[in-house]
Write a structure and sequence with these properties.
Length: about 375
């Protein structure tokens, strides 16, 4: 890319990031002015959508002028295009988005918006909308699936297990997460990881913790009932086991779900590598799935399980299903990051981490300091 074009896109990115909230609001206002029916595709609150939109535009304006990485950018945009089908986005809507973006960019760069700048930005936005539209039109799998809740039970006041059966075969791999919306919040999509691998019967199981202030998760824990129909969209995530080296798994809370699915899938194979999973929560009684891990380990000698809790004893309001000692599982006290690093040398291991963003960051940082290569550490976006 010519230096003038790179300079133009750099100027534009700087202008966008000067007032990102205003930029996004103005773009959506332009879109809805061109096609008012587009507003119906979004939920009442667009805060999360607006944040994501700004991140995409910022990433594009940073990546296009770069000398390399364009293949990754194209795949990123293609994934966005396939993903946006779940919102009801049609091919003609991409022209609306292009027009709204170009109108706002012209306003932002007033005084610098000469024919050359306009052409540079136009080509960049045509790349964005063209790749997204093309990927959406050529996608081979459905935009959505539906599944019916067949069982739901609460493990604690803020944690529930929900089991469903899909109405058509789902496409995902063990360790991935799916986009989900429920009838209580039909336009609010959330990411949940199935805790079992895909199977021909279309069975699904999700472990959901009600997040403080979280509308969707709280509604699932308190309101979801048998017979509800959930809508599911495409899978994401790259957690996997390579089987060419020993594996370290670190699971915090309901972050156990994707790792549990991988363990169940591994138990069906004869070549599973030696695996050590650390499963942690604040209190030992919150380790709700220890008995399942114990059953997997009892028939698979390659699996070692360590329970971790920050506190040694449960408060009065927690009733443990089974304590680690009762299950014959090693129990350590401390944070997951500290216990994992203090327990062994993991330099030669493939590492998979799942849980809260804080736990993932802390564990990843300490493992790298301890000598584990960053390239051997997997986790989903935090």
């Amino acid at each position: 890319m010519a230096s003038h074009s790179r300079h133009t896109l750099h100027q534009l990115r700087t202008a966008v990031n000067r007032q990102p909230d205003r930029f996004v609001t103005n773009v959506y206002t332009r879109m809805f002015a061109i096609d008012p029916d587009l507003r119906d595709l979004f939920g009442v609150s667009m805060a999360a959508q607006q944040i994501a939109f700004h991140r995409v535009i910022d990433h594009v304006l940073e990546a296009i002028p770069a000398e390399s990485g364009h293949a990754d950018l194209v795949e990123f945009l293609a994934q966005l295009g396939r993903d946006h089908r779940k919102f009801g986005v049609e091919p003609e809507h991409y022209h609306v988005m292009y027009s709204a973006l170009m109108g706002e960019f012209a306003s932002l760069m007033e005084g610098y918006w000469d024919p050359e700048a306009q052409q540079t930005v136009s080509q960049a936005m045509m790349l964005v909308t063209g790749v997204m539209r093309g990927a959406a039109e050529t996608a081979t799998h459905p935009a959505r699936w539906t599944a019916e809740v067949v069982e739901k039970y609460r493990i604690s006041r803020d944690l529930a297990v929900v089991r469903l059966i899909a109405h058509a075969p789902l496409t995902f791999n063990a360790g991935q997460y799916l986009e989900v919306h429920t009838p209580q919040w039909p336009k609010q999509w959330r990411n949940f990881s199935p805790s079992i691998p895909p199977n021909p019967a279309g069975e699904l199981e999700f472990h959901v913790r009600a997040i403080k202030g979280g509308t969707v998760s709280s509604a699932i824990v308190s309101e979801t009932s048998v017979g509800d129909v959930w809508t599911l969209s495409q899978s994401h995530g790259t957690l996997h086991v390579d089987r060419d080296r020993p594996v370290l798994m670190v699971a915090g809370g309901t972050g156990l779900a994707p790792l549990r699915a991988l363990l169940i899938e591994m138990s069906k194979r004869a070549d599973a590598p030696p695996t050590h999973i650390f499963y942690g929560m604040r209190y030992p009684g919150e380790l709700y799935d220890l008995s399942v891990l114990r059953r997997i380990a009892s028939t698979n000698p390659w699996l070692q399980v360590t329970a971790v809790s920050e506190e040694e004893r449960d408060p009065w309001w927690i009733t443990a299903v089974a304590a680690p000692a009762e299950l014959g599982i090693d129990h350590r006290i401390g944070t997951l990051a500290d216990v994992v690093v203090d327990t062994g040398n993991w330099e030669n291991h493939q590492v998979l981490i799942a849980g809260s963003s804080q736990m993932i960051e802390a564990t990843r940082r300490k493992l790298i300091i301890a000598g584990v290569r960053a390239s051997r550490i997997q986790h989903d976006p935090v």
